[in-house]
Amino acid sequence: AHHYEGRVEVKYKGKWGTVNDHNWSMEAAAVVCRQLGCGVAVGNPQRAKFGPGNGPIWFHYIHCKGPESAITECSYSTVEDHHPKGHSHDNDAGASCSGKCCLAV
C-alpha cells in the first residue's frame, strides 16, 4: 500500500535472499524498520503477503528481542539456503513500517 512495507530480504555472499516467517514477530519487524530508518513497525506480515521471493531463503528463523539495531544482531538459524531443504517462499516474512524510508544497500 505504501513505500514503507515489503518482503524482508537479506544480502549474503553477494546474493539477495528471503527470511522464512517461522517465529517472525513484531520485534523482528521493528528491528528491520529501525535498520532501514523507516520508523516503527506497524505490522509483521507473514505467508508472503508481498509476494513470494525467488532464490535462496537465507534464514529459517530469526528471533529478535526488539532493541537490536540490525537483524544480524538477533538470534537466527544457520545462514544457508533453506529452499532446497523443503522450505517454501510461500512463507516469506515482511515488515510494515510507519515512517520515512531510506533503503540500505
Features:
single chain; 105 residues; mainly beta; four-stranded mixed beta sheet; three-stranded antiparallel beta sheet; 1 helix; 10% helix
Protein architecture, described:
The protein has 105 residues and is mainly beta. The protein is 10% helix and 30% strand. The chain is built from 1 helix and 7 strands; from the N terminus they run βββαββββ. Strands 2-3-5-6 form a 4-stranded mixed β-sheet, with no helix packed on it. A hairpin with a 2-residue loop joins strand 2 and strand 3 (15-22). The longest helix has 11 residues, at 26-36. The chain is globular, with a radius of gyration of 12 Å. The two termini are 22 Å apart. The model has no long low-confidence stretch (mean pLDDT 88).
Main sheet specs? 4 strands, mixed
Number of β-strand runs: 7
Radius of gyration, rounded? 12 Å
Task: Output the helix-strand order.
Answer: EEEHEEEE
What integer is the average pLDDT?
88
User: Residue ranges: pLDDT <50 for 5 or more in a row?
Assistant: none
Silhouette:
globular
> Oligomeric state of the chains?
single chain
Strand order in space, largest sheet: 2-3-5-6
Which range best describes the helical content: under 10%, 10-25%, 25-40%, 40-55%, 55-70% or over 70%? 10-25%
Structural class: mainly beta
Number of helices: 1
Q: Proportion of β residues? A: 25-35%
Distance between the termini: 22 Å
